[in-house]
Structure formats: C-alpha cells, structure tokens
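Ticket #4471: structure output looks truncated?

Reporter: J.K.
Steps to reproduce: submitted the chain below (164 residues) through the standard prediction queue, then opened the result file.
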Amino acid sequence: MEQMQSLLEEMDDRTFVFGSLFVTANLLETLLDRAFANYGITSKQWLLLITIQSLFQEAPTVSQVAAAMGSSHQNIKQVALNLERRGFLRLEKSEQDARVTRLVVTDACRAFAEDTQQAGEAFMKEAFSGVSVEDAHGARNTLFALWQNALNLKQQDDQTRKDS
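Returned output as attached by the reporter:
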C-alpha cells in the first residue's frame, strides 16, 4: 500500500485526476447499487431520475435527458423502460409529435425520493468529509471544464466519423 501511495504521489496531477475519476466513479456506482438494491433500481437508473427531477421543470423528452447525461437516446430509453417496469416513470408520447417520448416521474418515484432523502444527505456528508468548501468549489470548476472539453472532443469525433 505504501508503494502505491508513493507512485500516486509521483504521478502527474492531470493523469491522477483523469484516472481517479474512473476509479471513484466505479466505487460510487458500487456503493449506490448496493444502497438502492432494496428499491430494485441501479445507480444509473437513480441518476436518470435525479437528472429529470433536478434539471427539468416539465417532463423532458428522452433526447433531452440523453443530452443532459451525455448518453445516447437508445441507452436512456432502455434505462427509462426498466424504470417504467418498476413504476418509477411513465413514458408518454407527446400530443404534439408522436415521435417524441416524454419521461414522467410517478408518485412511486416521489415516494422513493422522500424515503431516501435523509440517507442521501448522510452519504453526501460522509463522501465530502474533509473537503473544504473552497476545495469543493475548485473541484466543481475543474470538473465543469473537463466536461466541456469532453463535449468538444465528442463533437470533433462525431464530425470526423461523419466525414469518413
């Protein structure tokens, strides 16, 4: 363990940050999957629900959620269908355009949010213990910049694939 710590300390900051994003994401996904197992949902399903509830005033379309989550329409639709089977969402065709599907949270979803609110707050407090407000703000700025850069890289990659 000491040898690994020494290697990590010698690692370039950008390499460490990039790699630790994946390691941390995997650890958090595992912990959240375990925590939500009793509710019959996964961390990816939970993230979709949080995205809908946090970022949209009205029931969003599958495409809007896919864009917000940096995922494909097909992946979001599959996750949403699983949540619909569990009663957390309803997939409704738009009255204006039958090609558009909206994701509507249900009473079961709202009850789940209420049931898990205190545990979620405790988890966040523990996850950020020892992290100052200033460090959290700096991390937010860094992650936002990485996110924007990733979106730019994706756009360039999409264009390259389109031109090929």
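Triage note (M.O.): checked the attachment and the full token line is present. The first strand starts at residue 89 and ends at 93.
Status: closed, working as intended.
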